[in-house]
Write a structure and sequence with these properties.
Shape of chain A: globular
Structural class of chain A: alpha+beta
Oligomer: heterodimer
Number of domains of chain B: 1
Largest sheet of chain B: 2 strands, antiparallel
Strand order of the largest sheet of chain B: 1-2
Helix content of chain B: over 70%
Number of helices of chain B: 11
Radius of gyration of chain A: 22 Å
Largest sheet of chain A: 5 strands, antiparallel
Strand content of chain B: under 5%
Shape of chain B: globular
Strand order of the largest sheet of chain A: 1-2-3-4-5
């Protein structure tokens, strides 16, 4: 009996020891790599924000002019996000909103949605997703041009009923075998446009104050 | 010494190939092998993790109580995979952008745990490292061939997606194997993975059978003579 309890103690101690070593290693690596990872994510973000805006349509520093965006179910944001007003010669030429499609095939799909003051989309890009590689990941510009079909669309082009993938009777293309990912993106983009329509005044006004 | 090394290499690449003989780690294998580049990328990432986890497990094997060895091995593998993931993201961004999505898949790949348990826990660090590497390369081979097959039949292409690894200029390397081919969707969808893997296993078994034939008849003849 004594040996038995001794064994149990030894076993749990060693399991505990390995867990502690593992946790320390992970925490150390995390601390070590965090600045570098944050920087590369920020660089990638600047590139992405620039992609949803037509070249030459802005002359402001997009990341510097970032404004906080409150958490809002329409945008799918559970934590406050950011939006980026783009100005050309002091006039707002577009606003780039962060949005999240909560119902991707494998969790959230993070999006950047560029919208002109008249409500027309300048572009949409996926910034982060966990869709199946080789199947649902065509929503990513790196894998296919699918996401470009949003360029120039607005809330009444196509009609509200047509803001769906073609399989559901809408106007948006999708690829056979993976409809959940595009469905989630189409819905999220429509919701982002709704949000813009509802908060247009603040989104555009705040920018002007900031610019002065 | 040398024969042990040779055995490990032959076992990993052919005799005990994880993909077509041990049939382990099928979840990521079947999900990701939609193209040659995808398959090879996951295979190579797995090989690196297997070499590392085998080495780590061999080094600490004396400290591991037998009753809780599996949780401890899983802990080691998960820690290593997460560290590789973070380090790659921080310092090898280009490579991470290509392989990043596959790395978390490696944790669930039971071939990694299988090699740690079956080999690394009983052998030295060097041979364990080699075993992990070779098993990983064996898996890469299967993934690359399976991915290539599915890509050719599914899209009529080979090497699509290589621009992600080598930059946009590499688009020129994409081979249009069957120009004007409409594509067979089945090949890209999950059933295509099962059918393709079945064909590969069958092909390997057939090769083994043919290779075994002359030897068997040679060993049978003396018996008949007596």
């Amino acid at each position: 009996m004594n040996e038995f309890s001794h064994n149990i103690k030894l076993t749990s101690l060693s399991l505990f020891g390995f867990s502690v070593v593992g946790a320390v290693l992970l925490a150390g690596t995390f601390q070590l790599t965090r600045p570098s990872i944050e920087k590369s994510e920020r660089d990638a973000k600047i590139k992405l924000i620039a992609q949803v805006l037509p070249a030459g349509s802005y002359d402001s520093d997009l990341v510097k002019s970032a404004h906080p965006l409150p958490a809002d179910p329409l945008l799918g944001l559970r934590k406050p996000g950011e939006y980026y007003p783009a100005t050309l010669a002091g006039k707002t030429s577009a606003v780039v909103l962060e949005a999240i499609a909560p119902d991707g095939y494998d969790g959230e799909i993070k999006l950047l949605v560029g919208i002109q003051p008249d409500g027309q989309l300048t572009g949409v890009r996926v910034t982060e997703h966990h869709e199946t590689p080789g199947l649902g990941d065509y929503i990513d510009i790196a894998k296919s041009q699918w996401i470009r079909q949003f360029d120039g669309k607005s809330l009444d082009n196509p009609k509200p009923d047509d803001w769906k993938v073609k399989k559901d009777g809408g106007k948006f293309d999708y690829m056979t075998g993976a409809t959940i990912s595009p469905r989630a993106v189409v819905k999220a983009v429509e919701h982002a446009l709704d949000y813009f329509a509802q908060h247009k005044a603040e989104l555009l006004a705040q920018e002007v104050n900031h610019g002065q | 010494m040398a024969s042990e090394t040779r055995d490990i290499i032959i076992n990993g690449l052919w005799k005990q190939n994880p993909g077509v003989v041990q049939i382990l780690g099928m979840c990521p294998t079947l999900a990701v092998s939609t193209s040659l580049v995808n398959g090879l990328s996951l295979g190579l990432a797995t090989a690196v993790v297997m070499a590392l986890s085998n080495t780590a497990a061999a080094l600490v094997s004396r400290l591991v109580p037998p009753a809780v060895r599996i949780p401890i091995y899983i802990l080691i593998i998960a820690t290593l995979v997460t560290m590789v993931d973070l380090l790659m993201h921080a310092y090898l961004l280009q490579l991470y952008l290509v392989l990043g999505i596959y790395i978390p898949l490696i944790v669930v790949n039971c071939i990694v745990l299988a090699r740690v348990e079956a080999y690394a826990s009983k052998h030295g660090a060097f041979y364990s490292f080699l075993d992990g590497l070779m098993m990983g390369l064996g898996l890469s081979l299967v993934l690359a061939v399976l991915g290539g097959m599915r890509e050719i039949f599914g899209k009529g292409l080979l090497l699509s997606g290589i621009d992600l690894a080598l930059g946009p200029a590499a688009n020129a390397y994409v081979i249009h194997v069957l120009p004007g081919y409409q594509g067979l969707l089945l090949s890209i969808l999950p059933p295509g993975a099962f059918i393709g893997l079945g064909l590969l296993i069958a092909a390997r078994n057939r090769i083994e059978q043919v290779r075994a034939l002359p030897r068997r008849s040679a060993s049978l003849q003396p018996q008949q003579a007596t």
